[in-house]
Specification:
The complex is a heterodimer of chains A (147) and B (553). The longest helix of chain A has 12 residues. In chain A, 29% of the residues lie in helices and 21% in strands. Chain A has a single domain, classed as 3-Layer(aba) Sandwich (Rossmann fold), CATH 3.40.50. The radius of gyration of chain A is 16 Å and the shape is globular. Chain A has 147 residues and is α/β, with parallel strands linked by helices. In chain B, 56% of the residues are buried. The chains are: A alpha/beta (147), B alpha+beta (553).
């Protein structure tokens, strides 16, 4: 599956992926082992707070594109907890959801299509302005009108 | 009223271009109907029984003549010459071809309009009091905050894939014409002890198959905290709202299953946990900028009463009736608020033709300082009409078939499209409305019956608001036959209540005579002509009306 990161298709080094509970057990036992944790939609991302330094990748799973809980998970990781590592969208990741994901703090996307890089480029350029501040560092139109 | 700046204009233009690309990808087969569905839904495009339906947003129901004229043009060029007002103060066109929709969106963008988030599991068009900015009852005009909510909720990156659709309504008047207590979030503008205005926050109201009246979770939220508080509510809903069953996915179910107290605690906890960097930046200068668009228009200094009006009323009885029924007091001396009924006897409630739209646009420009409102009860309003002009206005409305004197009367029925158009419906609703209108066509009789709100839905999804009708009518399908269940005592106003089912369903042909008996029972029990049906019902209980309903031999 192509992985798009920083706008480019990159190798998708799939290390060991742990779901939240096994990860929490492992991390409590061995605080130095860097792994990938995968959040399912009903996982609470705030539980990762003590372990953010040892995380390089948080995968957020979208079993169905219509399940929007992953957007809140990403926003909480970025804006509430200040997580700086990679947030990767996996699962039912579609071109027309990419911009919402980017704005919510995702920076890597498993995109199941051959033209992943072009699709990503087109999707991320569709809008010049956004009303809300979000995890992408945008201050939002309310503020920009007066800056 | 609000005007787009370069940011708003560009976002709407880019939306039209984006949707054009999505339609092209659908028509070329790059995406499946299943993948296209959430994209078209977020843009107000439904696949209905006969065709695609396009729903266009009218933010808080406010528009100007130029925009109404654009609707007339769309009706004529892309549809069959008419449009339909919805209970979210929007308009829908039932016969637009998918390939034409990108062109329609381009045309709408020219007049600062769009179809963004008029469907889909996202935050829908924010609705408000249709008399906002004109009625003396309100503590201030709520529309600047509706516009702020519109902008904040547009393409919200976190809240565009909610468990279910999400509806917000705002009022600033004690007499609630916006049905805020049957919304996912209702905001009632209040003044606190310090004299500042803010918002009472009501959550978890809704209709559908499990109707709920919303509960107040915060008696007062200051203006500068409103968006952050809304974000907290939305995040709790997005994370914890049910997604296993679409019929239990609205926030009303989360509130009732969690308990209002615990739900409030979750929201408050989320709100308190917000870091500075998570707060919405809404500079006071921006609030002022938006508010200034809603400054009162240039009213003339006029006396309280109008000799011209009084003389015309004395001469023309039908006009006098129309003034009494359809014109309400304005905050400005010498002006009135005019409701244009879109419920002429025997026509589909809420439908207007291209010509009627053009007439309304012209009349708004000439007589109402270029403002028009669409109401959730599917009528139009000219909010700022000089009393001196009422008779001229009335005559022009009358020749366009727009002067029916039935605002809030028994034939002013809310009705969903029903089985004639909608693929969710179990039963027809428009013909039932038409039969009732014909039965009670006599305006003198309607006037005698007084305020009575009948609301009809063709299925349990309750788009026709039957749960909150003084008399509600719900179409159900039983073994291939349509039956109509009657409820009494619902109301959508500040005393919001869900109607109670009276008993077994009736056949369509029996509904008018059954309701005639109910009306007779009401006329017998009312203490005076001033006691409305809903008040009499509250005083004497449902029994006399149930008996009358089923009294046929």
């Amino acid at each position: 599956m192509p992985l798009v990161k920083n706008g480019e298709v990159t190798a998708n080094p799939h290390g060991e992926v742990l779901t939240l509970e096994p990860f929490l057990e492992m991390a409590a036992a061995d605080p130095n082992d860097a792994v990938i944790v995968r959040l399912m939609p009903d996982d609470c991302p705030l539980k990762l707070e003590p372990f953010l330094d040892q995380l390089e990748v948080v995968e957020i799973s979208f079993p169905r594109y219509a399940d929007g809980r992953g957007y809140s998970q990403a926003q909480l990781l970025r804006r509430r907890l200040g997580y700086k590592g990679e947030i990767r969208a996996v699962g039912d990741v579609l071109r027309d959801q990419l911009l919402f994901m980017l704005r919510s703090g995702f920076d890597a996307f498993e995109l199941g299509r051959e033209d992943a890089a072009q699709a990503f480029a087109a999707a991320s350029r569709e809008y010049s302005h956004f009303y809300q501040p979000a995890a992408d560092g945008e201050s939002g139109v309310f503020a920009r009108r007066h800056s | 009223m609000y005007r787009y700046d370069e940011f708003d204009a560009q976002i709407v233009r880019e939306r039209a271009a984006q949707f054009r690309g999505q339609v092209e990808r659908r028509l070329s087969g790059d995406i499946t109907e299943d993948q296209f569905k959430p994209l078209r839904l977020m843009n107000g495009v439904y696949l209905q029984l006969h065709a695609y339906m396009l729903r266009i947003a009218i933010p808080y129901g406010t528009l100007r003549g130029e925009q109404m004229r654009k609707f007339a043009h769309i009706a004529r060029k892309y549809d069959k010459g008419y449009g339909h007002w919805t209970t979210r103060q929007n308009i829908q066109f039932n016969w637009v071809a998918l390939k034409d929709i990108p062109d329609v969106l381009d045309e709408l963008a020219e007049v600062e309009m769009h179809a963004i988030q008029t469907s889909g599991n996202c935050i829908r068009n924010t609705t408000s009091d249709q008399f906002a900015g004109a009625t003396a009852e309100e503590i201030e005009d709520p529309r600047p905050w509706c516009e702020i909510i519109r902008q904040w909720s547009t393409f919200h990156p976190e809240f565009s894939f909610l468990p279910r659709k999400f509806k917000i309504a705002v009022t600033a008047a004690e007499n609630d014409r916006a049905a805020i207590r049957v919304h996912d979030i209702g905001l009632h503008m209040r003044r606190n002890d310090a004299g500042e205005t803010g918002f009472e926050v009501i959550v978890g109201g809704g209709q559908g198959r499990t109707p709920h009246v919303g509960v107040t979770i915060k008696p007062f939220v200051a203006k500068d905290q409103l968006l952050d508080y809304l974000e907290a509510i939305m995040r709790v809903y997005n994370r914890f709202g049910r997604r296993d069953n679409k019929y239990k996915a609205r926030i009303k179910i989360l509130v009732s299953e969690t308990g209002a107290e615990e739900f409030t605690r979750l929201v408050d906890e989320e709100f308190e946990a917000q870091r500075d960097a998570e707060k919405i930046v809404l500079p006071q200068a921006e609030v002022d900028r938006i508010t200034q668009y809603f400054a009162p228009p240039a009213f003339e200094d006029l006396p309280d009463t109008s000799d011209v009006l009084e003389a015309a009323k004395a001469k023309d009885e039908a006009f006098a009736r129309w003034v009494r029924v359809n014109v309400r007091p304005h905050k400005q001396a010498g002006y009135g608020i005019v409701t244009i009924s879109c419920k002429p006897i025997g026509a589909p409630p809420g439908d207007v033709t291209d010509t009627q739209m053009e007439v309304t646009a012209d009349l708004a420009e000439r007589y109402s300082l270029d403002e028009i409102r669409i109401t959730h009860e599917q009528n139009m309003v000219l909010p700022h009409v000089k009393l001196d002009d009422l008779f001229d206005l009335y005559q022009e409305l009358d020749s366009a078939g727009l002067a029916t004197a039935n605002y809030e009367l028994i034939s002013d029925i809310i009705c969903c499209p029903g089985l004639d158009y909608c693929n969710l419906a179990n039963a027809r609703s428009i013909p039932v409305a038409q039969d009732l209108q014909n039965t009670f066509a006599d305006l003198e009789r309607q006037d005698d019956i007084g305020e009575l709100k009948i609301k009809i839905s063709g299925c349990i999804n309750a788009c026709g608001h039957h749960h909150v009708g003084h008399i509600g009518i719900l179409g159900v399908d039983r073994k291939g036959e349509e039956f109509y269940q009657i409820t009494f005592g619902g109301r959508a106003d500040e005393k919001a209540a869900i109607g109670q089912i009276a008993g077994p369903g009736l056949r369509a042909e029996d509904v008018p005579s059954a309701l005639e008996r109910v009306i007779e029972a009401y006329r017998e029990v009312r203490s005076s002509k001033d006691e409305r049906f809903i008040d009499a019902l509250e005083r004497v209980g449902h029994d006399p009306f149930k008996e009358a309903l089923y009294a046929a031999g």
